Every structure is written in C-alpha cells, then in structure tokens.
Amino acid sequence: MDSREVVFWAFAALLVSGCISLRPQEENVTIMDVDELRPRPVPTSTTSTTTTAALGPTSTSTTLECPYQCCNDTEHRPRACGGWLTCLNGTCVDRPCPFQCCVLGMYETKECPGPLACVNSTCVRLPCPEEFECCNGTDYLEVECRHGFVCMDHRCNSVDSDSDGLADVAEKNYGTNENLPDTDGDGLLDHLEVKTLGTNPLSKNTDSDRYPDGNDSRPAVKDSAFVNVTLVANSVDVNPEVLDKLVMHLDFGQPLPAALTEVARFHFQTRLDNTGSDYTDFVNYTYQIGYWCAPGVDVRRKPFVIGQITNVNQSWVGLRGEHNDTENATAWVLKDVKVAYLRRLNPQDRIITAHSASVTVADLSEEAMAAVVSTRRCAYNTGILNARYETF
User: 36-40, 78-82, 277-281: lowest mean pLDDT where?
Assistant: First the structure.
C-alpha cells in the first residue's frame, strides 16, 4: 500500500475505537459585568484563603474602604451626597449656583452688585417705582431734589442742618437760624416752640410775663396776679367837742380849732385776694373817706348860706350801707388815705389787713364842715379805690 492508504486505514481504526468523536464538545462560558472586569483593590481588613489542586499554594485578596465622603467610578464605588450637596474631588460640597444669583435654601446666596436686584435667579435693574421721587426711570439712578431736600432711599427728604427737628426750609419761614437748634437761647428747641408749645422761637419770653419760656410752665399764656381789695370791717369814732367848735365857727364866726385837730378816726380792715396765676410783691390802694347826704337834703345853716354844692354821680359804699340813689345826692371827698401792702402775695392767697386813718380840720372845706355837723340824713362813707399791684 502506498502512504495514502496507510493514513486512511489508521484514521478509520481510530474512529472505530472511539478515540475520536465527531460531535462538537460544549464550552463552559461565564458572562461578567463590566465592573467585574476592572481590577479589584486588595482588601485591607478581610482575608480569604483557597486551596485547590490546580493552583497549589495559598493566595490572598483584599477590598478597600472609600477614604472620602463620596467616591467616583474610577477609584471606588460611588456614594451619593445628601440634600443639595454634590460630590467634588471626593468631598460633598454645596452645588455651585448655576445662575447670576441664587435663592437662599437652594444654593449659596449670591447677591447682585450695585442697584441690581435678584429676580428669578437673574440680576436685573428694577424700574424706578412711581412713589419714589429721586430716581430716573429704568436707570434707577438718583436725581437732584429741590433746594433744601436730599435724596434718601429714593425719596426727597428735607434737610435739618442743626438737628432741632425743624427742616431748613421751614426755619426760613419762621425766621429762625437753620444752624442753631435754639435760635432765641431760651432753652427750648425751635421745633418744640413752633410745633408743640406755640411760642415765639425768636423771643425768650413769648407771653411777656415774669418767666422766660424755658422756665415757664405755660410759656404761651401770660401769668399775672389779679388782686381784689375789699373792705371787710369799717367803723368811725367822732370827736363831739370838735363838732361843737365847728358849729360855733359856722354860726358865729368863732375861730377854727387847730388844723391837725382830729374830727373823726376810722378803723378799717381790708381783704386782699390774689386770684391770678402769678405772685405780686406789693399791693397799693386808696382808702377814700367821704361824706354823703341823701337827695333833697339842704345843709345850709342860718344866718350863713353855704356856697354851691356840686352833685356827683358816684356810688358810695360806707358806714350806712350802699347808696344807689345818687342822681340828686351830694357827696364830698374829705380825704384819700394811701395804703401799701409790701409783701409777696402768692396766687390764691387771701390776706386780711387792719388800718386806721383820721380826718382833721384841715381836711374839711366850709361846705364839708356844714355837712359834717348837720344832723339830717348825712353820713360818712368810705371806699377802696385805685388798687395797684405787680402785673405783666
């Protein structure tokens, strides 16, 4: 046989003996995830040992823990950050604001520069609100206010150079000094005088009373004393001997007694009432002594005729009460007695004073002598006149 026959028969013998199988043999294939194909770090804390007849000696493998707050896919398995945090270089950090400005609670706050405002995470220039007085349109820039005003918070506010509460423009109206908080120097700020007290900021004493505005409890109301002087007691002692001598003089021409001879002495008390709002340091008044005869009384004496007697229209309050029927009455003023109370009389004070005064021969005219010695309806009368005191 040639060589080809030898090969053929040898192949056939192998087929018959079963050493060569013509059926395809199944392969043992394992499907792995992509991550499984990546190299695994050696574990640091866990060690496993496997012994097989094929591998022979013992081998060791280790799984590493992530040393960061978060891990990325290239180094370790990723670990999610919580809330609004994001992983940057293995650390959980706030997410960067993707806008021009951010809202607190979503991202870090990022303010807009200058006059810009954050609207929908974008820095925009707000239009000037209509109620603002000193910004111009969409530029939102300040514009000049009129004289005496300054732009503050987009509104024209009046200037108060001396900080007295009264604006400079108002001070010009009142004539006050815009650089002096108290123009008149009375201790009261100009604003207080003009707006609250109603006093004159250019005068230290607006009401012209005793007290300057700064020390006056009522600086706009004039404080003054108001004193009433009234008679509360009144009596007279007549000297009868002198009256007889006066009769002898009138009827028979006998000489008069000495000029200072007392004809009658008066005792009187006066009450001083201060109903005002201020004190007074003095009260002066006149105690007037007169003689009065009722209407129709003729005081002429024989054989002499008393000269013309002038009727006076005056109401007398005296020893016999008040005489209102004075149309035909006759009265003589015998003497005016000046009285002075030279002590302080405070508001609401009531003072009783006692005095005495006399009428002498020198105080009587011929007509008055005839009336004084008359026994008909005539009498002494007294009254208080011309009360004066310290007023403002």
Answer: 36-40
